[in-house]
Write a structure and sequence with these properties.
The protein has 219 residues and is mainly alpha-helical. It has one domain. 46% of the residues lie in helices and 11% in strands. A two-stranded antiparallel ribbon has the order 1-2. It has a two-stranded parallel ribbon with strand order 3-4. A hairpin with a 5-residue loop joins strand 1 and strand 2 (57-65). The longest helix has 35 residues, at 2-36. The chain starts with a helix and ends with a helix.
């Protein structure tokens, strides 16, 4: 009952209320962001969402406030994240303010307040079949992994275990608990690391490395 009907209802009402209340803050951040980033203040990227009836992940456009420039090296490749993030971006990330525009994704139905965080599209081929079950529910603004260490979690496998645990145990009580812990952590700025995937690196790199190691052991 909750997972099928009430969760989505709470997402609609909660995101609509939050967008109305936070609209002055969002407007200010967008204006300041446009100045700080010298142009477009929005970061929009395709991410995988909930599976459709055929068991395939749907795609949606995640919207956030930009925290990095598009600076490139001499070969035209983007510089590392830590080299592109601005002081303004660090401030946004330290307070998780760059995530606020995801309320629009929640209102549209792309995301939920609570669920596994939406990861990069290019990671999809590297999931195990069991790990793909994280897409049985809508991705979330926050989730069980985020309240248990966020980017400080030591491995991708640990993160996915939290995601799968959430899929199995989704309930109103659990969602409320995760939301309250998230608010507490954001206020205290605990378990926050500026920069993407600092602790465990990229999933595709980790899984390719594991495959190469297995190949070496085989021969």
């Amino acid at each position: 009952m909750y997972r099928k009907y009430l969760k989505r209802l709470f997402d609609i009402l909660g995101s609509l209320f939050a967008l109305i209340v936070l609209s002055p803050v969002l407007l200010l951040l967008i204006i300041v962001g446009a100045v700080a980033m010298k142009g477009n203040p929005f970061f929009i990227q395709k991410r995988p969402g909930r599976k459709d009836r055929n068991g395939e992940e749907t795609m949606f456009r995640l919207i956030k406030l930009r925290t990095m420039t598009n600076a490139k090296d001499g070969n035209g490749r983007l510089l590392a994240d830590d080299e592109r993030i601005t002081s303004y971006g660090r401030l946004l990330r330290s307070a998780s303010l760059d995530e606020l525009l995801e309320l629009v994704n929640i209102l549209k139905g792309d995301m939920s307040f609570v669920g596994p965080r939406p990861l990069l599209v290019e990671y999809l081929p590297y999931y195990t079949e069991e790990e793909r079950r994280r897409h049985d529910v809508r991705p979330g603004l926050t989730g069980l992994a985020q309240v248990n260490g966020r980017n400080a979690i030591p491995s991708w496998e640990s993160r996915f275990q939290y995601d799968l645990e959430y899929v199995r145990s989704c309930s109103f009580r659990l969602d409320l608990k995760i939301i309250l812990i998230t608010i507490k952590k954001v206020i205290r700025r605990s378990d926050i690391r500026i920069g993407s995937e600092i602790a465990v690196g990229r999933l595709d790199d980790a899984r390719r490395g594991r495959s190469r190691a297995c190949d070496r052991q085989t021969f």
